[in-house]
Amino acid sequence: MAQSTSSDFLLAEAADALHTTDSAAFLVRPRILRRIINQDRELPGLGWSVPHRKSYIIDRDRLLRIVVREELGMPASANLPETVILIAHPDKDDLVDATQETLLRQIWRMLFHARIHFELDQNLRRAN
Fold first, then answer.
1. Most buried residue, 6, 31, 57, 89, by CB count within 10 Å?
2. Closest Cα partner for 10 from 122, 89, 126?
């Protein structure tokens, strides 16, 4: 029980730090992220080969057609930016020996990766 509480605490702190750093970014459960990607990309099957399964950038309106805010770990009244960055949090089993520092480092890397993709996509849209 103490491990679960410790893991929950680490994830809650990491989610707050992520959203404070980038108001468009949210930590979500991996299975929720896989479902969002599958439905947004209209991928067939069970989604075993989901591309970029650890982070995903999606338009707010498309996102809210797939999930409700509570599934994202936020109150129904929360405002979402026009573009949302979703980052899968690690499984609780992976957090057993994790420190806040190692968890945040992992999340910052995923956020950096997602932001690079976002900027590349924006540049491609402007070029076309």
1. 89
2. 89
Reference 25, options 64, 69, 80, 68; nearest CA is 80
Contact 113, 85 (CB under 8 A): no
The DSSP output letter for 82 is S
User: Would you say 102 and 76 are in contact if contact means Cβ atoms under 8 Å apart?
Assistant: no
* pTM for the structure as a whole: 0.83
d(CA 40, CA 46) in angstroms, rounded, equals 14
Q: What is the pLDDT of residues 43-102, one digit of tens each?
A: 766 555 555 568 999 999 999 999 998 888 877 777 899 999 999 988 777 777 888 899
Please write the tens of the pLDDT for every residue from 91-118. Answer: 777 777 888 899 999 999 999 999 998 8
Closest residue by Cα to residue 36 from 11, 75, 81, 68: 68
* Domain of residue 38, residue span: 2-127
Q: How far apart are CA 50 and CA 83, in angstroms?
A: 20
Residue 41 token pair: 């990309």
**Overall number of domains in the chain:** 1
